[in-house]
Amino acid sequence: DQVSCLFHTDHHTIFNSSAPMSASRPQTIRLRDYQPPAFLVERIHLRVDLSGGTAQVDATLDLHRNPAADNDAPLRLDAEFLDLESLTLDGAELEPSTLRDEQGTIVLHDVPQRCRVESVSRFDPAANTALSGLYRSGGMFCTQCEAEGFRRITPYPDRPDVLAPFTTTVVADRATCPVLLSNGDCIDRGALDAERHYAVWHDPFPKPSYLFALVAGDLACQEATFVTASGREVALHFYVEPENAGRTEHALAALQRAMRWDETHYGLEYDLDTYMVVAVGDFNMGAMENKGLNVFNTQFVLASPDTATDADYENIEAVIGHEYFHNWTGNRVTCRDWFQLSLKEGLTVFREHQFAEAMGSEAVQRIGQVRLLRTAQFPEDAGPMSHPVRPDSYVEINNFYTATVYAKGAEVIRMYHTLLGDDAFRRGVQRYLQRHDGEAATIEDFLAAMEEAGGLDLQQFALWYTQAGTPRIEVEDHYDAEHNTYTLICRQSLPASPGQPHKDPMHIPLAVGLLGRDGRPLAARRPDESTAHAHTRVLELREPEQHFVFEQCPERPVPSLLRGFSAPVKLHYPYTDDDLGFLLAHDSDPFARWEAGQQLALRVLLDEAQGTPRPDGIERLEEAFRASLEAPDTDPALVAEALTLPGETYLAEQMDVVDPQAIHDARQRVRAILGEALEGHWLILHSQHSGPWHYEPDEVARRRLRNLALGYLNAGSERHLSRALEQLERSDNLTDRLAALAVLADSPRAEAEQAVDAFYQRWSDEPLVVDKWFRTQALADRPDTVYRVHQLTEHPDFTLDNPNRARALLGAFAQGNPAHFHSPDGSGYRLLGEHVLRLDPNNPQLAARLLAPLAQWRRYNASRRHAMREQLERILERDALSKDVYEVASKSLG
Ligand code: 0A1
Ligand code: ZN
């Protein structure tokens, strides 16, 4: 089985604490049990020899007792899947097998105040299919240590509150691994013998083990420099496998922009002499912020017009920025424990969002952020895995790298920004970083810095970290014509969530504006204001019900509520269709304008899905679309957003019992109607050829509009299929080719099927393009989609060993194609269940992520519920299930 084939065992001790659970229930880790580490690491020296069949790791740790911990607490060294050849304490050999607790951790009692631990371990990187710790990807060796991968490399107090300077010697064969990298700066390199060479890296910044990285392989490097604000020159090195040379230009330029932005916006400079980025084909997540040596999923770094779409180019800039911004928010100041994950992730995602808003269109960025929050985070927050931004317990921390911790966490940071204003917020961040530089901090530390910088009491605001679920705000209003007063009545509530039956009222910033009958902003005066004004106001909700009075209000206004999406809530106000049309036409807040259009479309789509279509609704939507299509001087990117109907997942969010097929059919019908009614417009849009491909905001928006047009033209009819065939044939870039491929993948016509095959033949040497080919078919709408996805799992290029490939087919199908995943015969669920079970022994992290859609079973009708549960039960019956999958499956059923 998988566990034993990971290791070559003889007389040595194998630590496999993360081995699949057997009969015993896995342990729950709780925030309230936090204890400071008994020992701190003064320095660590590693020697990692990759030249043999297995990796050999020699580690020397200099330790001392932590004055902040219990005096008699033992020294704990985490270790997993290691073949431990020797372990010594101040030179005396220990027998590790007698020192392990149930978790496999080495527990040493009666250790001197200061001591040295030396160890020699071995493992086989090529057998490490979990992609956690040190593993092989293609021809290279690389590492992934967050959250708890370092213990799979060497015995160590593998927790984020133990920080140490690392010195790492990497040894490997020169022929296969000419490039040897680790964190910090290279201080020595040379030959060991005829075959082997070495490099010594030193990272002076004390860091937790999760930020350790090592890479060895035959890699091409693109180099550039960056001169910091204070005049230091930083070398930027991008490493890729040779076939990807020439595809790092975009990422490199994005890095330079991110470095400059962090200097100008936050006054934060880079701190080492080199910044390295390595692109890896097998990676569980997007990228990793290892100190000075980021490791990236190829998908988020390699860009060329033939292999990356406009969306990929945009994501690359965002992820490059995200990992760079971690250098301060995450690395210089890290997290005390994993419950504080959002301390680094929420803050860094927010900084990434600010960067994207500064580089492009603020409104378009905001719309994208809100779309993602509503489709990925809101359902999570309403389901069985719902947890607060700071969870208070977990079984497997890898399951908590979630939309809640990341995206809702970023919204929480945005609310501080809204409450404090940009200047005070910036000062708060700087204060937090200065005060905790070189430390492992908590969310309370951040909140305290913000309170001081803003001169605010944020104790109630802190509930955003501890209460799960999406708050609901009901707004009513009242106009008193006699006294010219207008009142907004706001009621907030928060649904119960697992372990949290009762909730307290939250502190919620609600940005509002008032519009007059002429469509212009309407001035009014709040009782605490000296004069009336018409600007956006931030109302602060703190009570279950609050009345906000506006005086000197000359007429009954139309309220514009939750401008800029000022809080991650669901807001309800009894707008009429006329009100929404009015806001769509006149609101000065571009986000609110878009939102009014979406709400209008949502009504039409829901009526349609519930079998009560309203012709006047469709007509209104058509008018709104026409107005967008004909609007002069509107940012084309905003027009594209306005012409994109709410997605099926967001529609599902609005239904008590979700009917994925009805939602899909309704959306398709409405698309077909709009396609036909506005055919002339779509034809014009689609035939507006731009010149050769160029990644530039206006061009990107134009391509998006062209491809939207192509989609509408082919919705519900095949009249314009030839346009898709021709576009696929003639385009010079992947964005346009994929848009055409998506249309063709839905068609049963022979020429369409041939084109889909030909696309594969043409691009079969490009893994990232082949991923898209799988994804496009997983998202296709055909009577036999489930069967086709099943067949694709048997395609020679399909493998569960590569996370990008597994996600492209199975992740896209289960999350992005609800109508077919939820096929009434349960075939979609069975397909997913089977592959989760197949994947679990090899890559439990990925298996647990793919499983997530089944957790939502309560939202569906009885027969679907039954069939979904059946798969969860089937999974739970498996012996030796990973902690990862066990936690998701058992919490889903529980
Ligand atoms: N810290 C990274 C995300 C990440 C998390 C876990 C990983 O392996 C289990 C890998 C990457 C980030 O936020 O970019
Ligand atoms: Zn991050």
Main attributes of the structure:
single chain, 894 residues, alpha+beta, nine-stranded mixed sheet, five-stranded mixed sheet, disordered N terminus, binds O-methyl-L-tyrosine, binds zinc ion, metallopeptidase activity
Structure description:
The chain is of the alpha+beta class.
Give a summary of the structure in a few sentences.
It is an enzyme of class 3 (hydrolase). This protein is α+β, with helices and mostly antiparallel strands.
Secondary-structure topology with pairs:
Elements: H1 2-5, E1 13-16, E2 29-30, E3 39-49, E4 55-65, E5 75-77, E6 80-89, E7 92-93, E8 106-108, E9 114-123, E10 133-137, E11 140-144, E12 164-173, E13 179-182, E14 185-191, E15 196-207, E16 214-217, E17 220-227, E18 233-240, H2 249-266, E19 274-280, E20 287-288, E21 293-297, H3 310-325, E22 334-335, H4 341-359, H5 362-382, E23 393-394, H6 403-420, H7 422-436, E24 440-441, H8 443-454, H9 463-466, E25 472-480, E26 485-493, E27 508-515, E28 537-541, E29 545-550, E30 558-561, E31 570-572, H10 577-586, H11 590-609, H12 615-630, H13 636-642, H14 648-653, H15 660-677, H16 679-687, H17 697-713, H18 721-730, H19 734-745, H20 750-763, H21 767-778, H22 785-792, H23 803-816, H24 818-821, H25 827-839, H26 844-851, H27 862-877, H28 883-893
Parallel strand pairs: 3-12, 18-19, 19-21, 22-24, 25-31
Antiparallel strand pairs: 1-6, 2-23, 3-4, 4-9, 5-8, 6-7, 6-9, 10-11, 12-15, 13-16, 14-15, 17-18, 20-21, 25-26, 26-29, 27-28, 27-30
The chain binds O-methyl-L-tyrosine and zinc ion (ZN).
Residues 322, 326, 345, 348 line the site of zinc ion (ZN).
